[in-house]
């Protein structure tokens, strides 16, 4: 019998995607669960193929259930360091890149529901110095 992922599994997976090198103790502290629970859940996700490598590559079924989006940001300030630091504190945000052109930055977002995506986008819009955002859902990866 396959046990479906719950919010604890999803939160653990999200933290591992952000930094797969975190210690079990750090993961347990951040998520408010025991070390044993973290170890058991990681083992279970590996057994069922949700995590195919400890470098945290999502299995094909879980990738289909993960919502990925990009958010373009226009900033007010010239010093982007405080903005980048604030974005990194928002759970669900991934890579942050500076851009040339009309927008100053792009942020990758990965989450498990549209409701959570909406919350993350609201959090991004509340970051000081963020003047404008445009977001797009990633639909499919296109090969060369």
How would you describe this protein?
It is a single chain. By secondary structure, the chain is an alpha+beta fold. The chain folds into two domains: 7-63, Winged helix-like DNA-binding domain superfamily/Winged helix DNA-binding domain (Arc Repressor Mutant, subunit A); 66-137, Alpha-Beta Plaits (2-Layer Sandwich). 40% of the residues lie in helices and 21% in strands. It has a four-stranded antiparallel beta sheet. The termini are far apart. The model has no long low-confidence stretch (mean pLDDT 88).
Question: Can I get a quick summary?
Answer:
The chain has 144 residues and is an alpha+beta fold.
List the helices and strands and how they pair.
Blueprint: H1 7-18, H2 24-31, H3 35-47, H4 60-64, E1 67-75, H5 81-88, E2 93-98, E3 105-111, H6 114-125, E4 130-137
Antiparallel strand pairs: 1-3, 1-4, 2-3
By secondary-structure content and strand pairing, the structural class works out as alpha+beta
> What is the count of structural domains?
2
The biggest beta sheet reads: 4 strands, antiparallel
CATH top level class name of the largest domain: Alpha Beta
Number of strands: 4
């Amino acid at each position: 019998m396959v046990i479906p992922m719950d919010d604890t599994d999803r939160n653990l997976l999200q933290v591992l995607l952000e930094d797969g090198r975190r210690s079990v103790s750090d993961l347990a502290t951040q998520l408010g669960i025991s070390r044993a629970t973290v170890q058991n859940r990681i083992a279970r996700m590996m057994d069922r193929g949700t995590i195919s490598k400890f470098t945290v590559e999502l299995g094909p079924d879980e990738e289909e259930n993960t919502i990925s989006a990009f958010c373009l940001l226009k900033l007010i300030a010239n010093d982007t360091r405080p903005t980048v630091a604030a974005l990194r504190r928002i759970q669900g945000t991934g890579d942050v890149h500076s851009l040339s052109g009309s927008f100053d930055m792009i942020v990758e977002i990965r989450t498990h529901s549209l409701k959570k995506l909406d919350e993350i986008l609201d959090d991004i819009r509340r970051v000081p110095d963020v003047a404008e955002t445009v977001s797009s859902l990633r639909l499919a990866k296109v090969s060369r």
